[in-house]
Each structure stands twice: as C-alpha cells, then as structure tokens.
Amino acid sequence: MEKIMNITKEDLAKMTLPYLKSLDHETLVDISFELRNVVIGLLERLEKNSKNSSNPPSSDNPYKKKPKDKEPESSDDEDKKDGEESHPEKPNDSPRPEPERNPGRQPGSQGFWRSETPVPEQIISHYPEQCPCCNRHLNIPDKASPYMGYYVFELEKTDSGIRISCCLHHYYIIMCECGQEVKSSPGQGYVSHQDGRKKDLKLTEYVMTGPMLVTFIAALSVRYRMSRPKIREFLMYWFGLELSVGTIDRCIREAGVACFPVVEELIDELQKEDVVHLDETPWNEKGVLKWMWVAVSCTIAIYLIGTRKKEELLKLITEAFLGWLVTDGYMAYRDHEKRQRCLAHLIRKAVALTGAVDEKAQKMGDWLLKELRCLIKTMAEYGEDNKKKCSPILARLKKACNLGAKEDHAKLKALANEILNDWDAVVAFVKNPDLPPTNNEAERALRHAVISKRISFGTRTSEGSKAYAALLSVIETCRLRNQNPWDFISQVISLGRKGIAPGSIPLFS
Ligand SMILES: [Zn+2]
Hints:
Order of helices and strands: HHHHEEEEEEEHHHHEEEHEEHHHHHHHHH
Strand order of the largest sheet: 10-9-8-11-12
Number of strands: 12
Shape: elongated
Strand content: 5-15%
Distance between the termini: 54 Å
Radius of gyration: 30 Å
Oligomer: single chain
Helix content: 40-55%
Largest sheet: 5 strands, mixed
Bound molecules: zinc ion
C-alpha cells in the first residue's frame, strides 16, 4: 500500500483538466485506478488510531467519542508507547530548537549566592577518632577550634509533615601523642566524569544539600516532572530555601549517579528471572535520536538509554539469561530462542485490516482477529484442558495466515507472513501456560518516560541519560517490591557519599 504513495505533487500538478481530456481511454483508466489506490491508502491512514495501530491514545481525536468497550483484550493495549513497530526514523516530538548558549549561568553574568547567612539550629562536630599511625584512641581536647565548616540543608520528616533544617558541620584536627596530626574530613565517594564539563560530579558529604533533600528534588524532577526553574521556585516559596538551578541540577544527577551500583546489581539479578518483558521507545538526547529500553520481570524493572542496536540489548539481557523473553517483532529480539511474541501488536494490525477498503482484506482481517482473540480467551479460561481446546484454533489461524499470505493486499500479506515467520514465538504461550501473551507490562513501564519526554524533550548529556535511567529503574523496582523508593534512594546517597556500596532493594517489606 505504501508503494503507490509515490505519486508526487508534481505528478498531480501535471494532471490538469485539458491534460486528462487529451488522454486515450486506456491511459485514463490506468491513472484513475492508480489514484483510487492512493485515496485508499490515505483513507486507511486517516482511520489509524490507538485501537488499530501503535499510535498512542493521546493521538486519538478527542471529539470522537469512544464506543462502549466491547474488546477487553484490546483495552489493555491503550498503554501503547509512541515508539511503534513501524520504526519511526525520528522521535515524534520535534526537539526544542537548540539554543546557541550553554545552559546555566553565563560567563560574566551576576553569580548566585545566598542573600543571608543561614542560622544553624545545630552544630555537628566531627572529630578524628583514631590515629592511623599508632592506632591510639584520640581524646577530644578541651579547647579546639574547627579547621573547616559548612552548612547543610536537609529535609526532615516530622509527625505533622516535612520541614527543612539547617545544620553547621565542623571538622577538627587533633594532635596525637605520637606527634601525628589527625584530621577528620567529610566523606567522599564515586566521581562521575562528563566530557566538556568543567567540574566532575563527585559524591561527597561536603555539599549544602542533605541526602533526603537531594532525593526530594530528584523526586520532583523525575517522578513529578517539574522543570529545574519550577523546583527552584517551589523550594523558595514553600520552604524559604534558595537554591540555584545549577545546584538543583546537580542534586538530580547526584541521585541518579548514586543509584548506578544498585542498577548493576539489578542487572545481575535479572539474568536469573524466568520471564522478562522487553520493549523500546524513541528517546531524545540533546536533539539526537536515542532509544529507551526497558526490561521488566515480576520484581525488577531496568531502563537503559542508548542506541537501538543489539549490543545495547546485550547490556540488559546477557548470555547468562536462560528464561523467556516477551517482546514485539523487533529483529534484535529474534535470536533468543525462548520467546513469546506480543499478541496485542498483531491484534492491532488485524483490527486495522478490518477497516480496509478491500472487501477480501476486511474479511480476512476479521478472521485473523477472531482467531487471535479466541486463542487468548481460551488459554485464560481453561487450565489443563487448554491444549485440546486450542489445537483447532491454532489450525484455523494457520489456515487463515496461509490463505492471507497468497493475497495481493499488501497489509494482509504482511500480517499473515509476520505470524507465519514467527509462528513458534506467536503461539509459545499455548505450550507454556505461564507465559503472558501480551507485552503490556513493558509498555506500561515505558509510559511514564514517554510522557516525560514530551514535556522535557528528553535528556541533555550521556551522564544525564544514565542518571535518569538509573533513577527510573530504582523507583520502578521499588514499586514492584512494595518499597518506599525515596527512603531507599536517600539511604543510597548517604552511603555513596561515604564511599560505601549500597545494599540491594529489599524484596519484601
Ligand atoms: Zn598516633
């Protein structure tokens, strides 16, 4: 169907009334038929919506009322992401035009600093405890003065809500009896380097934002999709806390970077899972097309932003993985032997066929749709008896595909061949009743990010992408495990700033 769309505006411009009148009958018939096919293609494209294609529900005409839902399995498909099997070359959202300047404070512009000296509620003193030379325990002298100090703002949960506290941290040097000067100093951890950035992002205690405040800011950004200037405004009006947009940006990235070791452990855990759902959607990294992958099991969700190549997939699903994959028809997935093909994708294509202009294609579409739905329904209804019940359906589906593959209608032929060429993966769930026949879990897991991308136009750096993906992974995995993600992330940051590896996300609470 797409081929005949090759007709150009110039072709149409040539077809004036005098030109058409000058043609002989046979040529005129040929041209009319060609034009008819073009119109059919256009009409079918116009009728595309979230029910019969991979278009997202948000693209549906809001003025057209949905008919009462008669199709239970297709209603699950509404969570469709906008990256679709037709593999768009570019993200649907045109990226914001790139500004000439770099983000953040411009060279020469007025700097941002606190208008008043903060008033600390508490002074926390840090003394060295032990001498590294002689292992002697160090006593705190009566009169000591700190060699360094800094303020830390922290978000505290109280009985009645939340508040921002301010503490002054003092660090001391003690002279040991052995003559060694021993210093206490703020903790330090992982350093993240990003090419082209003046200062590396270092996990350290020597910052003005406490772990819970950093987590709160990351939550406002990633989960509640607030822009950095909005977060700045929010903190100022509701807490009287003045932070620069640069500091807020640093907090969001720090939270993500602190989660890197948690995600590494989740990837190891994922390889032992029985069933993993996989999907991918277009992503935008500073105007460059990237892909966001997601791998979801019952207790793990891992996001990854990168290319759409198979190598990228191997970072999520390694050779150690022996379980089942539930995927759409994307070729990168095809090598894996134990695979269930998502039936919701095929059903959407069959639904599109039922609206074809060609009567034969319409009827065949109806048939395929009926058999696919019948298969899902029968598997859901009959436990042990399913194999007996399903074999006639499988036979009919195969017959319909074999007939469809011989037809001239391009879309009918394509769908029939798609099912036949991947037959074992399409029907894997009949032999293995524990397999889900659709990939809704993965599509649902991508939905939050797809909406965020539309609001924020994606991420700006590879570190930003990795940090964002790490936060999404930890938040979604915590949700699957019924854990509070924010308490966990705050703990991860607190440990990371001391250079201590975080524990894994608890499985049960
Ligand atoms: Zn000593």
